[in-house]
Design a protein that fits this description.
The chain is an alpha/beta fold. The protein is about 35% helix and about 20% strand. It has 15 helices and 23 strands. A hairpin with a 2-residue loop joins strand 9 and strand 10. It is globular, with a radius of gyration of 24 Å. It starts with a strand and ends with a helix.
């Protein structure tokens, strides 16, 4: 039994962990890197076709976003996750593919004019269509027997609708180990979803550390904070622009705004308009309105029982088309604009920033984590000018941040979650945190709870039987590759994966009829002759 860390080691995004148990190869998450790339993710050390199962903690793209790429390159196993995560992935992965294809089309138009190389999308909408049928949805707190070597249980992580911590029971050569992946553990007392469920048992734990060196403090009054920001902005005649993750945070904000409107807390701006300007957020809001009672908290269930939709209200406007989006800024009525992406790296939010950042009467309100190097982080850190669409934009708007609304547990919440495990785990691995935060939190676990803990680097491999390191990871920081170099590496990687898949297919044909095997060999040799250089 072995575990290898492929991504989100000493970084916050790109979660990917490989486990080998007996003859089975399994992945826990396979996410996309976002923001600044500090350490290069480890290449998948086997062909996608050799992976038997994927266990997915939740739908956020930094955990799920590279799965269609695996499918495009030969993965055909089963993806186990919760019902809500399956529903959200249908729209989130398709949206991600649309972005990949749009970027490829744009880059290729430029390449045609300049004689540059063709740019290939990371994956396509067709790849996503092939991915979704591989999902096998599961309920919380049920033990699922996957095969002789593996069983799994999902427990509520309280981070996003359907998010889960994953408890894997692994069996090999008469030995059994329980490996618990925290996924992203949620904050407490948040709108719509329940608090994180605490685990009871595990031999080995892999825990996130996004806020592993910070405390949220006492739970703020979200409604009062938001009311104050809206009131002073509207009184100035400006807009409240909220860079908002399309899935999760947008719906939480709608829940709070519904309460503000219902209690008539905003004075002199009756029936103020609210716009959700993100096709993905609009689709996700529809999913949150479906019958997913297993995933909602008691307050939300009470509203639903009373016939109240917890995230809809008068003068809520859903923007689908680009014309809808353009109208938002053409209309001078003070309004709230919720738009993706949450870190301002892409999407329609950048257009709203272009129209509002220079306006002293407007407010840009951040309500989520901003990864290092993103435009959102730069604005919070006090940038006085930024560049959008090739044009310098002065930052005159009020830059505000809601306290305590993070979707992640803080340091003490994470420690409390770990402390509930009895008896204590034999070892804890810390990932999904900033470079120094991972080390700090690992040291805190050992000091406070008396559990051996360490923060591996990408590529590090450990024995699950002993907890000992078998291969050290790559400690070297990198500068992100230039797009041209990255494209070449990506295409060659596809070729390598195709070759590895071919070896898997050959092995599957062992014992076949001699006539068929000879024909297969001739086809391979003919292909080799064509491409041998």
């Amino acid at each position: 039994m072995k575990i290898q860390f492929l991504g989100a080691a000493h970084e916050v995004t790109g979660s990917a962990t490989l486990i080998t148990v007996g003859t089975k190869k399994i992945l826990v998450d396979y996410g996309m890197e976002q923001g600044v790339n500090i350490y290069e993710n480890c290449e998948l050390p086997l062909a996608p076709a050799e992976i038997d199962f994927i266990f997915l903690t939740h739908a956020h793209i930094d955990h799920s976003g590279m799965i269609p790429n695996l499918v495009a390159n030969g993965f055909n196993g089963t993806i186990f996750t919760t019902f809500a995560t399956q529903k959200l992935c249908k729209i989130m992965l398709m949206d991600s593919a649309h972005i990949q294809e749009f970027e490829a089309e744009w880059r290729n138009r430029k390449a045609q004019r300049s004689g540059g190389e063709e740019y290939l999308p990371v994956y396509t909408q067709d790849d996503v269509s092939k991915t979704i049928p591989l999902f096998s949805p599961c309920h919380y707190n049920i033990d699922y027997e996957i095969c002789n070597e593996i069983s799994v249980k999902f427990i509520d992580a309280g981070h996003l609708l359907g998010s889960a911590s994953i408890e894997l029971t692994l069996r090999e050569n008469g030995e059994t180990k329980t490996v618990l992946f925290s996924g992203d553990i949620g904050n407490i007392n948040r709108p719509l979803i329940r608090d994180p469920q605490k685990p009871e048992t595990a031999d080995i734990v892999v825990i996130e550390s996004t806020y592993g060196n910070r405390l949220h403090g006492e739970r703020p009054d979200y409604v009062s904070q938001l009311t104050s920001i809206i009131q002073r902005t509207f009184d100035r005649g400006g807009n409240v622009v909220v860079p908002c993750f399309a899935v999760g945070r947008t719906q939480e904000m709608l829940y709070l705004i519904r309460q503000i409107k219902n209690d008539r807390l905003i004075k002199n701006h009756d029936n103020f308009p609210v716009w959700v300007d993100s096709p993905l957020a609009v689709e996700a809001t529809g999913i949150y309105s479906e019958d997913l009672v297993e995933f909602f908290d008691s307050e939300t269930l009470d509203l639903l029982d009373a016939g109240i939709n917890p995230i809809k209200f008068p003068n809520l406007n859903l923007s689908i088309t680009s014309d809808d989006s353009k109208f938002i800024n053409a209309d001078k009525t003070p309004k709230i604009i919720l738009s993706a992406s949450g870190m301002c790296e892409a999407g329609r939010i950048r257009h709203h920033l272009k129209h509002n950042l220079w306006r002293r009467e407007s407010t840009i309100l951040f309500v989520g984590y901003q990864s290092e190097g993103t435009l959102g982080a730069k604005l919070i850190d006090g940038a006085t000018e930024i560049k959008l669409f090739g044009e310098p934009i002065a930052v005159n708007a009020e830059i505000a941040q809601m306290d305590g609304i993070s979707g992640h547990a803080d340091r003490d919440m994470l420690l409390s979650w770990l402390q509930n495990i009895n008896p204590k785990p034999r070892k804890v691995f810390v990932n999904h945190g900033g470079d120094t935060v991972c080390d700090e939190f690992a040291a805190r676990i050992t000091e406070t709870l008396g559990i051996p803990a360490e923060a591996p680097y990408n590529g590090a491999e450990y024995s699950l039987a002993s907890g000992e390191m078998l291969v050290d990871g790559n400690h070297e920081r990198i500068v992100k590759l230039k797009p041209k170099e990255s494209r070449a590496d990506t295409v060659f990687r596809r070729l390598l994966d195709a070759g590895r898949r071919l070896m898997v297919v050959i092995e599957h044909n062992r014992g076949g009829a001699n006539k068929d095997l000879a024909k297969f060999a001739d086809q391979i040799n003919a292909l080799s002759d064509k491409w041998d250089r």
